[in-house]
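Pilot study result, target chain (842 residues):
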Amino acid sequence: MLRTTLAQLRAHGARVLASCLAVVIAVAFVVATLVLNASAGASLLDAVGKPFTAAAAVVTPVRGTDLDGDPVATGAALQAAERSLRDLPAGRVAQVAADRSTGVQVQLPGRTGSTYAQADAVTAPGPLRWEGVLAGRLPAAAGEVAVSERTGAAVGDELTVTVVPSSEDGGESTERVRVVGVVDLTGDPTARYAGRVFATDEQLRTWDAPVTRLRVAAAGGAAAGPAAEEVLGAVAAAVPGELAAVSGREAAEERASAFTGDAAALTSVLLVFGAVAVLVASLVIANTFAVLLAQRTRDLALLRCVGATRAQVSRSVLLEALVVGLLASLAGAAAGTGLAAVVARVAADADSPVPLGTLQVPVRALVAGVVVGTVVTVLAALAPARAATRVAPLAALRPLVPAPVRSRGGLLRLVAGLVLTVPSAAALVLFSTRGALEPAVLAGAVSFVGVVLLGQRLVPAAVGLAGRLVRGAGVPARLAAGNAVRNPRRTAATATALLIGVTLTTAMVVGASSTRATAGDLLEAGYPTDVVVSSWEEPVDDALLERLRALPGVAGAVPVLEGEVELSTGGSTSASGVDTAAAAGVVRSQQRAPLPAPGEVVVAGRSAEALGLGDGQDVEVSSPDGTAVRLRVVVAPDSEQGTVLRTEDLLRADPAAPVSTAWLRLDDGLDPDAQARVVDDVTEVVAAALPSSGVSGVVAVRTAFDQVLTTMLLVVTGLLGVAVLIALLGVGNTLALSVVERRQESGLLRALGLTRRQLRALLAWEALLVAGVAGVLGVVLGTAYGLAGTSSVLAAEGPVVLDVPWAQVAGIVAVAALAGVLASVLPGRRAALTSPVAAIAD
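Predicted structure:
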């Protein structure tokens, strides 16, 4: 039987090639998804976690302690911990680095004003030094600095650095420094926020920069393994309770999570996509191979006639499936890796803040692809092999009459489809609205399997309705409408391949659009103001506000008062006062930080907890020089703006409250480079008028987040093309096999007078009906799954915006119909070229 099986593979090369292509593309789909997911995660970790790559332990304050948010206390505690860590055995610890950081103002060459920058201490030479240079060298003495590309400074430039006071008691210090290098921050999204300056540790000490964290390297440079774990345990035991020690890997992951959001919601999109890809690949392979074996029932029965036993025939079919599945899966794994490399290169060249420059090819991705392709192919052959061996040999040699849909098997499929679809669809709605990702994915997969089982009833019925619309288009159209519903199994099998592809494509298009819309709202909610101007000494006057409003690219500016008020419940707090009418046109969102209505005071969740205030509580706000104002408390749990009142309420409570802050909104539609130029212009104007001030270009943070999302969705979009190829191949496969099955029927029609052109038109109309119906059903299902997937990923982050790109959805239906017609060209040509006599005699 082994020789017979191999001979069957050689004799039916065209059919085997068709099924092989389906397996290759589906496995490539799975492998590319898994590889790109690993590459995206690794690239993000490499981009933002460079300082922690070689660290065995990283020491930071425990969140929620007295050190949290107090740079002075944090620096003192970390310095004390550094001294104790240096006492650890030299044979276990190779280096201890105390990272210092502070804010400075830098006057750049060619600019009259100053710009804000973050100053960091360069790591001392050793395994923990992560800073590389694009030009020049790293600073080695006082008066030397290296800069990031964002500053625009070059090697040899002279800069004036003004240290920003960290408290009211601090005084300004200004000095001239020389640029000796440009630090390589390629791929780090935070590099786009603001310029960065790197100096020696001694220089940072003179700038009164506190220690922000400690990094510890194990002897031998191991960042993982027993040696690193031993060092981590020793560090954790040596630091006090208000400090925490984590591994370098954990520190990098925490930083990446802080940048991309809780639980890395954007990466979860790719994880969901990988799970769906596995399911879709399984269904496509199973459908294609099942149709292929169904057409060979006669060949298998002939083997029975010449003495082959049922077991031998069954083993032959399964061995053929194993060979086809294994070889095609290996080719698919290689193709998927190549596809991932192409998509990664496109993403890397797309000016993304997180380029996918380093391709990660996990062994588990390759193994998963090969195993999925091989196992699913073999499983797909089980049912056809069993059906073929159960048919009597002589009976199988007679013309095969398909089992009616109302048979016992058809009834079982209907019941199984309903049992799987109804409860799982309800569970999908429940889990997606609650943001439960894993259960939602499982429910979605189960419901889709149920829909595929129900397709044998739904698709022919829908095709029958569509056929009534084309009956007046001529004889071929009427015959096509009748043929499409005459054999429901064949129609459902032909439509299933395209239904799967269209459903997946639509789900990803709708999901990507909704994800972008939702993430945009979440970013605006988290960063509602484009630019924040803060003054620590002199007030922000009207003249400065007018100059800011007149700058190109600035759409609006609103002053913000800052005062100190006492509460009738006890305690005092700083409060901001805003003109809510003017501020409403400047802030981009009030979802997390609402503006106060008349008679209200908005208090951030953390501030309300510290002050003992509850939502809806009445409180009197006053100052020694003002009058008490009774207001109702509105607690904003996720706000970061402290306590906010209306301007008139704050002035009544504290008449001396100065305008110390201004919120600015930039023009819509500015690209990142234009936004950076506007922020620089604002900084220059503010620095000239208010030397003791700072400008925070929050819009850069929001834009960087948005570009990360763009990169992630670009990866998903690249994979959509593979889904379309799977759908086209499935349609072509099933149409070609159905033409082979209907050779006698086509010959009889030709003998009765149907011309070759009419026969080709008949097959084209039939393909158009089936593909059009599959396209419409797939769009409906895909839209539902796309919206549910978006909700399951982002519902926990905030309100989900459901956005359906109707033009793209309509285009998917049109492409599906066109794909069906194109897939019928070669089968139709083959059927038309076969003579009626030869077809009937077959």
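One observation from the pilot: Residues 261-267 have pLDDT under 50 and may be disordered. A full batch analysis is planned for the follow-on phase.
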